[in-house]
Amino acid sequence: xxxxxxxSEAWWRRAAKSRVEPTLVHLYDGALIGxxxxxxxxxxxxxxxxxxxxxxxxxxxxxxxxxxYRRGAWVIVDADSRHGIWLGPVRxxxxxxxxxxxxxxxxxxxxxxxxx
Amino acid sequence: MDLFVKFWGTRGSIPTPGEHTSRYGGNxxxxxIRQGETLIICDAGSGIRELGDDLASRSAQPITxxxxxxxxxxxxxxxxxxxxxxxxxxxxxxxxGRGPGDDRFYRFLSGQMASDYFPISFKALRADxxxxxxxxxxxxxxxxxxxxxxxxxxxxxxxxxxxxxxIKVVYMTDVELPFLGPSGCADIRRAPSxxxxxxxxxxxxxxxxxxxxxxxxxxxxxxxSSCFSTVDLAVxxxxxxxxxxxxxxxxxxxxxxxxxxxxxxxVSGHGSSLxxxxxxxxxxxxxxxxxxxxxxxxxx
Lengths: 116, 300
Hints:
A: mainly beta; Tumour Suppressor Smad4; 1 helix; 11% helix; B: alpha/beta; Metallo-beta-lactamase, Chain A; globular; disordered C terminus
């Protein structure tokens, strides 16, 4: 027999899910620059100061990429940047992010994690 | 001109949903190849369902596409009844056979929707879906040159190469490479010369790497390869990037990572610069033709 009613269980599952925050940890030149929580439907990333997430390396483009929330997942898409998005040894045009992904944009590193 | 390659299903044999397979993905074979308005879909495993939903969200324009099947084993066709654009009358799809008059793939795709297997009949699909073949377009789909090669697999299988100017991408899943030559890292196993020629110089080779050596020896004749034989084929053929595909359904993401690490060690032992990765759902690669426009012959 369940210790929770069906309604209570559903509430608990929703509450647990709502506490998950898709987060980028930003590293540059061996230093932790900060954490950025992805919210809304789109976040721009680049060297331009008006970007949602500002990159620091000179190899990053002004408008480097964008993060989009598509059908339940965060996706990063290259915005025709000069040096691209690297996932491990491969330059990717876009990728649907998974926890633990390690992206290189210019010399900036972004790791994707789900903070609970 | 750019050629885009996107993975929608990378698993072999059977879908494997779950948290242990969430990174490489649990959907069976489906790869999208796109050049301008030309859409090519390699295989219709369960990954094609998400591709269909994504296509519908990209634009309100009618969708036209070419479906190239490697073969008709279930993990390569099971997603088609759930491919939502096939239910829209404004869309058009050509299912390509091996040559003029070969409608085998069309018949298998439609046959799996007979009432004993599926509640909705193929006739209920409102899109214009026809059987065709590459000869009808002189081997071109839009500006992309497409060639195929018969592969060693129970019941037969086709590998496809796609060329756009200087770009070459090869899709070669479900192939049993012979276990010719040494197992050590120092020497390269021999591969059939027609295969070496077919994948020669590819920018990207998407290829069967379902087993390790031990598993292959236990499953000889099942139609799949040891990833180390696939690595050696890629090295011998001067491939730039090998994306191991058709992951065994028993493998977790970490198991695939381990296999990729072992393959990279082997590449290093060969003194090669080959890049090896595991094909992963949701990854999209872009190749830019550095030699200018290719010839455009034939169109949908």
